[in-house]
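Fold sample X.
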Amino acid sequence: MDRERSIIEFDQGWADIQKGISKLKRLLEGKAETPVSIREYTMIYTTIYNMCNQKEPHDYSEQLYNKYKETLDEYITSTVLPPLREKHDEFMLRELAQRWLNHKVMVMWLTRFFQYLDRYFITRRSLPALNVVGMTCFRDLVYDEAHARAKNSVLVLCEECLKKEADRVYNYLHLTTETKLTEKVEHELLAVHVTELLEKKDSGIKALFRDEKAYSSPCCFARNAHSSGFSFLPFFFLFWQHVTVEGTTLVQQVEDAASKQDSNAPGRNEQVDCYRILIPKLIELQDKYKIYLNSCFKSHDLFQKALKEAFEVFCNKTVNGNVSAENLASFADHILRKGGIEKLGDEAIEETLEKIVELLDSIIEKDVFSEFYRKKLARRLLFDRSTNDHHERSILSKLKQRCGALFTMKMEGMVVTDVVLAKENQISFHEYLRNPDLHPGVDFIATVLTTGFWPSYKSLDIILPTEMVKCMEVFKGFYEKKTKKRKLTWIHSLGTCHINGKFEPKQIELIVSTYQAAVLLLFNESNRLSYTEMVSQLNLTHEDMARLLHSLSCAKYKILNKDPTSKSISQSDTFEFNSKFTDKLRRIKVPLPTVDDRKKVIEEVDKDRRYAIDAAVVRVMKSRKVLSYQQLISETVQQLSHSFKPDIKAIKKRIEDLIIRDYMERDPDQPNMFRYLA
């Protein structure tokens, strides 16, 4: 008699095992089926044992291990997930809980069936145990899909529980018990579990904000947590952290993109594009979290503080060499300048201006913004580039309301006072020139500005052509008759001239600066001039002369021919009027190379800050009379914080200067105490 066992082929053995697994599935689904008997269990176990102990190539241990996982995956995909996807809220939670219980039973029985694999094959191969594989299948296929929905459903139930307790108090209990009962329910439902839920990976507040699920768990916690024992601090920190990370990432992306553009095509245009991209993205981010703040956190003071502090972290970073205050001022100029933005209606412009002013709250150096904005405002007003006077006044009104009257005083003087008076002066001057004996022979308009309101401008001691000098003398005579004890200082760098260029192909009107016009008018007397001759006749420095000649001979429009031909200006060059110059237009504007005045703006801001610190220290000492060093520093910083964050060393230096100027003195007995001197 042959005592050798017959070989069990894989398909044959697996068919026997599959019968037991199918019966187990029907039992778990509640179908009519007899329980798994000891005989059936023993038969399945023995089949698996025999299939694992056959000689190669009939040792099916690895195939059985893989089939174990495939069986669970198939069971979950075909039986567990479909009913979960169909149900919602409480019904989904009940289904999930039942499926989890069923899965644990399924894994327990399958682990028993395949126990021999755990004892030998898995141990030798260092593979995950059968029980671990079973739990991992549920996590990967069910939990990852259902956990967010489950959490939302739990919170909906929490809200329902709170509502039911409130109804129960109203119907059956005394109303005075509602507060204590609600606090207790909130504590058990929310506060006990809040930290754990907030910090869970892929389901905490970061994941919920990342996925833009504004009404998910942390937000619901904040909406419903009214009890005195409920702590908002975990929400505060995680909300601040999330906004900070998202904003910093956004700023870094813009920085990287701008740096890439600069390396590919270095120039000023890439820096302009920088603020065009950055500020709208920051405004979009601000709008997004304002919605969360209002709808989810009910504008709670703590979360307003978290949002403001988070924005201050990344809104004050330097991007592509530009400080944040300059970027914001440039974007405001872009909105308000003619041709600056594409087809925005009045309402859209007003809305954007409101958001710019709101974003200014996050800028620490507001005085830097003010100075950059004032310079750009001046150019819009002087060169008639402003889209609308109403919008100019509107943003000043918003800035005044948010930052105070002192912040906008100079700008209001420019827009409200000087521009209006300048137009009145121009009308009066036009009437004055009706007298033919007074007319200078050239159409001339002068704009009178108040020195204290407008930014400071570089004025060159240039010798102007006689035509221009005559215009200035006529206007001076007019102005002196109209006003008394006022001195006129001419800022030629802001002037514009329209000159008729008589070229051989055709006559072209040239729109140039006053300095460029002075250079071109020299060629009325001579067709060819050397560099040194022009410097002598105009009394200009080499730097200024080179800049002017470069714009007229080396740039887009070559009004002058340079000898020798090159892209740079040297003192040995000679220049000749280009009589053959032509262009398809009959009027062209010849631009001057842009000058980077950021360094000058920062220097002016630093100078103004010294005066501001002096004034703040004097105000504090005048009101307190005697004060310690630490208190004086603290109160000075507090007074100046609305405009900028002062450096402690700078305050200390200004205190020493005020002592020298006899505004205050040190106490002889206590060096850290200061006394105000009337």
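Fold sample Y, listed below.
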Amino acid sequence: MNANLIEKVNKLQDLFAKVGVQNTGIDLPQIVVVGSQSSGKSSILENIVGKDFLPRGAGIVTRRPLVLQLINRNPQTSRAPSISRTSGETPVITEPTEWGEFLHIPNKKFTNFDDIRDEIVRDTASKAGTNGGISKDPINLRIYSPNVLTLTLVDLPGLTKVPVGDQPKDIEHMVREMILGYIKVPNAIILAVTAANTDLANSDSLKLAGEVDKDGLRTIGVLTKIDLMDPGTNVVDILAGRVISLQLGYVPVVNRGQRDIESQKKITKALDDEKAFFGQHPVYQSMSQVCGTPFLAKKLSMILTGHIRKSLPDMRAKLSSKLLEYRRELDSLGNDVTDESSQAYVMLSLIKKFSDEFFQVLDGSFPDLDPSVVSGGARISVVFKNNFSPVITGMNVSLDKERTRVEILNSSGKEPKLFPSNAPFLKLIKDQIMRLEEPSLKCVDIVHQELSTIIKLLLNRYKVFNRFPQLKEFFHVVVTNHVQKAVKPTKKLVRDIINAEATFINFAHPKSVGVDDAIAVVQKNRMGTGTRDPAPPTPRKFMSITRYLETLLNKVKSAGGVLEPPPEMLKPISGLSEEDRFDSEVIELLVKTQFNIAKDTVANLIPKAIILRLVNATMESLYTELHSKLFKTEVMGRLLKENETSAERREMCNKMIAALTKADEILTETVGNIETAKL
């Protein structure tokens, strides 16, 4: 069961490696090997595997993370066979007992471990160059063998101080950051390798591990080069935790030295020598059963298995969350729209959705309106009720008494005034009514601005526009122009309403005051204030045309027949006859009465006109307008051209969903097996 758990995690590693582990956001339990250059990391791994397969040399040899998955297999287990043949004989099918597989070279088995080393060197050079550079891209290697325990290890570049070759000046920082990226996650078990013949307090690996695992709960120490320690020294105090305490403890090992490697000493012989060293050493022989590479491999396998068990619930929760996240993103990105049929579907759906939601926002039935503020069509209603209507009904008659006198005088024309004329009243009331035009036209502009705000609101809601920026821009232009086209006829209707009010004064209106009634009101008011009734006409004290001619003739006579030009401006002379005063009051009353009627009419009709010609006309014809402008093959082909980022994200989401779905199946099966084993 323990080996099965590790193999399940290996499958997850392979799945995530194909899509980029960093994209999953799920930290898999794994053992990360950390150590400085020449600390013996590679020798430990080769001793665990029992094979020479890692690159050797001076400086940084491990220049990319190596995810090493060891799979214990029974030699009798059926695997893909290899074929060998001797001359003149029938091919004999033989089965390799040990081989390696690289994730980047699927379906190829490396039975020669020298070839594995060569492939590591080749693939490293392809990403990190050939002169000492490093790369974060991992190499995934799986080794099947009856001589290994099922185990997963991640070998990282050794900690270094001085750059060589193509290495950048900050190589120390780069390696350090790469290592921290692996060991800082809580699911990482840190295998800190330190040479025993150095001061443990100066161990780079333990120092780095201590930065992310301050209590030493997930760090296991490996002490190498035990056989090279000075005579009379040992690591007993370290093993007992009296120097630097680690919860998982320390394991001492003896590796092959450089001379052993150069003389091609077999690993099997090296393991035998290691066993003999600890078994015969006067200090270590009593604890030899917890020393050496075989014990280290067993301990690591046990630790990793327990860590996987403990991490399963959290892994499943994170996996489910990530799966939901990628499905939502994929849904927001939508399907691929490279063919005409899919483009037509997307465009028609968008046109219908926008048209429907534009109507719903204005109608008040849109489900996503902000409940905390007045929005949508309700704002237009507020404009009419709280802004436009109070402004119109609050306007008062603005009459200048001198202007009224002038209009009365001018109405007589060239003849002396014998009877009151309605011309002054008509001129004055028209001017007053035309004052209503400016706020009415401004109301059209305000409603137009509200419609523009609604358009922006809806356009910003659609994630499809993130995929097609050209579509959003063109869509906005079409809708904005469509609304703008309705402004001109709306303003024309508004002007017609104002002009209609000013053109014909309806004295038959229920609220209208007739001339006789107005005279009666004025007389009553004058009596109430003690003012005399109109006296018989008295000579008017103004310079009428007749009076001006008489005066002019007298001046001509007195000047000896010399004719003088009239003044540029003729105004009433000071003072006003009682009759003219009375006429002015009557006219002013009539103007005020009819202006109030006009205000009520305008306050009532202008909102209706705006709703009819601007709001409803735009709303009802929007779908047709969008369809005619956007639903064209050449237009759709141009506008539904997806940006590269969206296409890449969709591809990534599909890959991640496939990988995470498969991972969920693996974890579900694993948890089920564990529960079954408990029964």
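Sample Y note: Confidence is low (pLDDT under 50) at residues 532-545.
Also: Strands lie at 30-34, 66-72, 82-84, 92-94, 99-102, 139-145, 151-155, 188-195, 219-224, 250-252.
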